[in-house]
Amino acid sequence: MLFENRKQLSTLLLPAIVVLGLLTAYPIISVVYNAFLSVDIGSGQHHFVGMANFAELFDDFFFVTAIQNTLLFTVVASTAQVLLGLVLALLFHRNFPGRRFALPVIIYPMMISTLVCSSIWRSWYHYDFGFLNAAFVSVGLPPQEWLFNPDFALYAIAIVDTWQWTPMAFLIILAGLQSVPKDISDAAMVDGATGWKSTLYITLPLIQKQILLAFLLRSIDTFKLFDKVYVMTGGGPGNATETLSMFVYKYGFRFFDLGMASASSLVMLAISLAMTLIYAKRVMKGGKQ
């Protein structure tokens, strides 16, 4: 037996538990505590204000807009990534010439640093010198204000996120496809279910769990979007791309209002936790209703 008693095991795990507590439990407790206070960074004084921070938040046009932007981005980006990942997984589940060389190319964007990826796409989106506008002009289309059009800037960032993180959804779904027993598809062919019918009515129901898992992981990640917005638009134009993470950053590190920053962090945590519980419940059930 590796450990003679529970006391030895507890002693071994104690350092990890202490580190986990310092890095996870303490920040959460601190945020919850500060959310009900008005904190003056300069003097170090604070006083209890109850739910006043939350009431002020939901009366704040910029906070409500940040929630709307975040939810819209989450739905658009995670849906696009999972659908594209599904299409790519179905394609790569079959053998075709050059498959071994194409697979690393598909996965490559996920390996790039997010800041590097954002900087690359920001240069591609440049109105005068960007690659995309140059391509548009070459085929007779007008150049676009990708990051300066309030109606399109959020979708432009969603394109970047989709380019970078579709490979994650692709790998999860491909793993699900490869776990489907070949006997099932062979039996379907014997029964006359071939091509898209076999995929639609047999393969996809069997990998619902993997598809939901891809949705869960991508939704969590897109919901906390910060780095791409920070690098590419800073929340602009206006507040067209301001997300909840960006809102928290501005209040905490620009305005130094820890009470409002903590309250908005708790709202963000509550929304993400609700999303996670919904997805996780369905994943635990194996994708069943």
UniProtKB/TrEMBL annotation:
Transmembrane intervals: 12-36, 71-92, 101-121, 152-177, 198-217, 258-280
Membrane topology, record value: Multi-pass membrane protein
Keywords (A to Z) from UniProt: Cell membrane, Membrane, Transmembrane, Transmembrane helix, Transport
InterPro entries referenced in this protein's UniProt entry, alphabetically: MetI-like, MetI-like_sf
Localization (cell): Cell membrane
Main location: membrane
Domain ABC transmembrane type-1: residue ranges: 67-279
Domain of life: Bacteria
Pfam family, one: BPD_transp_1
PROSITE patterns (UniProt xref): ABC_TM1
Family: Belongs to the binding-protein-dependent transport system permease family.
Stated name of the protein: Sugar ABC transporter permease
Species the sequence originates in: Motilimonas cestriensis
